Amino acid sequence: MAIFETLTIEKGMYDPNGSGLTKVLEKLDPSENYKGTSLEGLDAFQRQLKRFDIRVSGRSSDNVEKFFQTTSSAALFPEYISRAVKQGMEQADVLKDIVATVTHIDGMDYRSIASVPNDSALTLQQVNEGASIPETNVSVQANLVSLHKRGRMLVSSYEALRFQRLDLFTVTLRQIGAHIAKTQFEDAVNVLINGDGNSNAITSINAASSGTLSYSDLITLWSSLTPYRLNTIIAPTALVSTVLNMPQMQDSHAGNTFHSTGKMITPLGATLIHAPSMQAGTLIGIDKSYALEMVIAGDVTTEYDKLIDRQLERAAITCIAGFSKIFKDASKAMTV
Questions:
Q1: What proportions of the chain, in percent to the nearest 5, are helix, strand and coil?
Q2: Global pTM value
Q3: 312-325 and 113-114: which strand pairing?
């Protein structure tokens, strides 16, 4: 009998720091032991679903009550919820287009590093024999990164959901994840504009004509980022519409990309991101490779005690994350 069929699963396996059940199951039942078998490609949690014959998606998905047939299968329910929420976060995620790196931490206190090079430091001059090599100073930021706990409260009862299909319930959970991702994106934009508390608010330049955004203004934004590259533009609804209506967006490559894939780009090749909550009249241009660091404390966390012992009722689904600016001049704002 395989190991996964004999494991006793209990709520004590959940890490209070929010790393989830899968990590614990993988230590007890490593996926590498299943190479070359019919279970290859499944992780430890998915093997447990198969063990209890729980189908969470597809035409033949089970009802919610399938999780509560045994004590061990009930202990899988919080992990299923966390995974569904993460799916929603990934589907709605645009942070990958503005974040240079993601740092995972175990605690709540994190201090990032910063380098503020001047023009001479950005150019590698010739070093004569015996001369000292120019230095780039890297220092710890004065203030901690502000971490925000974002989430939703899941309110229901086992009786209300027991006969609902899991694939339908998953859609609801993915929507919660999408809301969390949306709020995290708003946090990131706020840090880009106002800084992370370390005197690094964004530098703003004005459009040539007040109230009007032109193609020449995008060129100005592009040149102001030098030596960084303009590869992402974040804008509110009205300015996104303005960019999409520019004659330059009617060229064959830009137009075909938008019409065939729905992916918005600009005539300069930068990814255009729609940020409805941004202040009207402000547009941000960044070099996503150098502008922003995302700091995550733990994983998506679900209050497993209430879900297992009380069969839903009220349970919080949360994720803790914050953002820090890496190079201040890797982002610029334009005011229209």
A1: 40, 20, 40
A2: 0.85
A3: unpaired
Closest Cα partner for 322 from 88, 170, 112?
112
- As a whole number of Å, the end-to-end CA separation of the chain is 68
Can you give the pLDDT of all 336 residues of the chain as single tens digits? 577 788 889 888 887 665 678 889 999 999 999 999 999 999 999 999 999 999 998 888 999 999 989 989 999 999 999 999 999 999 999 999 999 999 999 888 898 987 766 555 555 567 777 677 767 777 788 888 999 999 888 888 878 888 899 999 999 999 999 999 999 999 999 999 999 999 899 999 999 888 889 999 999 999 999 889 999 999 999 999 999 888 877 665 666 666 667 666 676 888 999 999 999 999 999 999 999 999 999 888 887 776 766 666 677 889 999 999 999 899 999 999
